[in-house]
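DATA SHEET
Item: assembly model
Revision: 1
Owner: S.N.
Input lines:
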Amino acid sequence: MALEDLGEFGLIDRIVARLGDAAARDITVPPGDDAAAWAVDAGVAVATVDTLAEGTHWRRDTMSFADVGWRAVVTSISDLAAMGVEPGFLLISAELGPSVQLDDVDAFADGVAAACDCYGVRVAGGNVAGTPATSFSTTAFGTATAAGDGSPLLLRRDAARPGDLVAVSGTPGASAAGLAMIEAGRAEESEAEPLVTAHRRPQARIGLGRAAVEAGVKCTVDISDGLLQDLGHVARASRVGVEVDAGAVPLHPSALALLDPERARELALRGGEDYELALTAPAATLGALTDGEAPVTTIGRVVAEYPGEVVVLGSDGRPLEQPSGGWDQLRTARG
Amino acid sequence: MALEDLGEFGLIDRIVARLGDAAARDITVPPGDDAAAWAVDAGVAVATVDTLAEGTHWRRDTMSFADVGWRAVVTSISDLAAMGVEPGFLLISAELGPSVQLDDVDAFADGVAAACDCYGVRVAGGNVAGTPATSFSTTAFGTATAAGDGSPLLLRRDAARPGDLVAVSGTPGASAAGLAMIEAGRAEESEAEPLVTAHRRPQARIGLGRAAVEAGVKCTVDISDGLLQDLGHVARASRVGVEVDAGAVPLHPSALALLDPERARELALRGGEDYELALTAPAATLGALTDGEAPVTTIGRVVAEYPGEVVVLGSDGRPLEQPSGGWDQLRTARG
């Protein structure tokens, strides 16, 4: 069957059916009305939107529509993880280019459903349109938990303080290394498999974000634009300097096995699409974070010097020469 | 200055500055962090997303980027109006194609700001990406008010009942007539001006949706996909039939003056992008709705016969032969 035969509303019905338990059928207004509605307690609502556009964020030769569906969920809920918030509901806006087939939409829905099942989130609604190009935008919603005094427990970019250590979860650069393997035609090599999975089926660190909130961490950012770039946001928002010890950034063993060490390190510092978290906190607070879903490694410190800057230090403790940059949605796509 | 020189984060700062009072700077987490956060009371959260893609929903020769910004707000908050909900905050995801210039983004932000000012909503966050094609997706949030028993007051598609009258606000087809004038090169004719404005700067019927809730109306839909198409959603969701008296549908006087009467009526029945509301309710309930921001006209009735169908009746009370259809996001774009 062709998409245009099914029509917009037939397709929406089909997607909702295909989502299975990932469709929020029992909320106040489930998918299918002008808007979705669900009950909320008094508190602080947290919401974010992110987009995956074909040609910019993914290509058909680098990932399947099922992978795109998975990542459309992860990319948004990762932003809630970085706030220390448990995600609850999603709205997904699907823009379907002329070449998208019904099988592609089915596969996308399957990927969404798999990620929803993994993270305990559900689709409350969305939108479907036939458009000149293909992209998916996901809005994710959650509610912040409250401290004893009722204030919301949220992890902020502007809460880094001199004296904090800087830590990162997992092995940054694994996603970019996976993409490099795919592009080099080496995706089938067994050693490449964990990297390819990191690219196609990244994990959102929801549990870590929640654990960080509980441990008293105040400052976290997700590093989907690249470790240095996203630490730069922390440095600017907090008006502090950030020092990163290049040798301390944990590299994926497969990246070290398959890539030149310099290249592996470069991808760890600048590669995007790792949905890991970078955190800053006093040493005792970070120490209270037990390794849960991913190891957390100390990679540097927050300083009062050079506010707004991120400096990468070599093994001698002196700054390495660093071109600025990372994944910039405009510069990378248009530059 | 070029967009790529400014970069993603420079552009976000510029947009937030340009939004002025339309940027929600005083919420718990204002634009600029991984996610936005704001305080909510206990109740029912209502959320919707809609997309305006270049080439599908607008073209540069039919509307300016400022018009697109206006409509990016109206298209989403209209869905909340159709639920009887006052909109509060927006997230805007901007996908900027290669030809988009900084002036275009500025104009878009100005249009967003103007609509936000008009409707008392604010932008809490969003996303910017450089992509192969241009589109804007807006997520709108509100909270349902509660009835005396605490249940949420929401207008649903599935609440039409046999015996209800069917009514519509404003003059459906005005937007489509405006587009026809623009495409015919007649946009500058003074008689065309209200139609062109209806297309480029449509109004969302927030006040009417709220008034309908207060008056006890249960069933409303926005008719942005065309009057008959959207009444079809009501018919199917409510498992009722809907009869529309063709002669009762109010036409804009300028559409009647400028277009063939048959064409004007056809656009009123099927033209999309009127952000008017269609309502069904007992006559006494509809009678309690005073004309506020737009007149409300009775155009038909809900019947128990032919559930799921919409039938258009001629002046003799007999069904007119009607091709099915209206604006379908897939069939119209791809068919």
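QC remark: Chain B has two domains: 3-144, 157-320.
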